[in-house]
Amino acid sequence: MGQQIKLIDRFRRLHRSLRLSVTDRCNLRCSYCMPAEGAIFVPRPTLLTFEEITRVVRLLSNRCGITDVRLTGGEPLVRRELPKLVAMLADLGTLTDLSLTSNAMLLEPMAAELRQAGLRRINISIDTLDEATFRRLTRRDGLDKVLRGIDAAINAGFENIKLNATAIRGITESEVIDLVQFAIEKGVQIRFIEFMPLDADRNWTNDGVLTGDDIRQRIESHFGALIPHRTSTSQPATDYLIDGKLAFGLIESVTKPFCNACDRIRMTADGSIRNCLFSQQEYPLRDLLRDGASDDAIVRQFIAAVNAKESGHGIGETNFAPPDRPMYSIGG
Ligand code: SAM
Ligand code: SF4
After folding, report:
1. Cα 247 to Cα 46, 67, 164, 208, distances in angstroms
2. Of 133, 197, 296, 313, whose CA is between 20 and 30 Å from 255?
């Protein structure tokens, strides 16, 4: 094993977590993420292979202190043979956590196989329980599949299942209580994530964000006083208990950014390192991997990315500009 290093940036943040996009393709077209038509995808030959991904994760976990890997996309379940990649990463035996974020459209037939392959945790995105709103938001049918996917994940025995709802003003208000109720009934936690300027259509405005404060007030007026419950400082969500049980969380990325506790780096499906969702610069890895670069050269590219990380995402600052890639292309 080569020299051990810690991925610590200029602001003394230690990086332990890798968000790994396995595809930018998706079977939905959520309006806060993708365009309705004409989405641009990376050419298939540029997607990192499972062997390339596994080499990178092995290096990061053996030498650079990365302990947590979350697979994402686009929709990670549309990547062919995903359970094979899960098994390759789980078999490294070096990760504390291996998780997945999915829209669950394809989860029902895959949940047990993913669990068996070594996937520990799963987050499922669900913004609405209403079929018509689902169709309006995702521009596709399929709420029934998502609901069956949630049940399949529960039946497959995943630990600590979380539901994610993007909080958009004018859409989410009427769903907040029903979604919390639904999560309580299913025995899982729901987290509301403030809408961020990462939509392909560039329609984001500050007014479009349904804020954590607003959601808290709505839930409090229905369920009574809430007790915040923070499990870890690097966890972006503030969790809340209802009747003594974890019920929901708020990820207030826009109104209360958690950048000072960020421990994440990201890798796009076509093999570029990003140090932030909002970074303007990427650190290419694919050509290094394909041109026979040494392990040291690959580690150096991660160090360069981490060293250049800014202190915060800058949303709301006068010189803020959204990144060139929308959410589906970065990996959320
Ligand atoms: N397709 C998978 C899914 O939807 O769960 C994984 C990728 S998706 C980009 C990851 C998460 O990002 C989802 O929970 C989604 O709701 C969230 N997301 C997408 N665009 C967003 C935006 N503009 N602001 C906040 N969250 C967003
Ligand atoms: Fe697809 Fe997830 Fe983006 Fe929706 S949020 S379009 S499901 S990648």
Report:
1. 41, 26, 12, 25
2. 133
Paired residues of 123 in beta bridges: 101, 162
pTM of the model: 0.97
Q: Which of 163, 328, 330 to mutate to test the pocket of ligand 2 (most atoms within 8 A of CB)?
A: 328
> Using a 6 Å cutoff on CB, does residue 164 contact ligand 1?
yes
Quick: pLDDT tens for 172-230.
Answer: 999 999 999 999 999 999 999 999 999 999 999 999 999 999 999 999 999 998 888 87
| Alpha carbons within 13 A on the beta-carbon side of 105 | 17
Going from N- to C-terminal start, the domains of the chain cover 17-160+260-330
pLDDT at 300 over 80: yes
Query: Which among 330, 322, 324, 326 has a CA at the least distance from the CA of 270?
Result: 330
Beta strands 189-194 and 245-251 are parallel
Q: Which residues contact 25 (CB under 8 A, 6 or more apart)?
A: 41, 73, 74, 75, 78, 79
Give per-residue pLDDT as tens, 66-78.
999 999 999 999 9
Q: Which atom of ligand 1 is nearest to the CA of 253?
A: 25
Q: Is residue 231 scored above 70 in pLDDT?
A: no
3-class DSSP assignment, residue 84: helix
CA distance 22 to 33: 17
Which numbered ligand comes closest to the C-alpha of 331?
A: 1
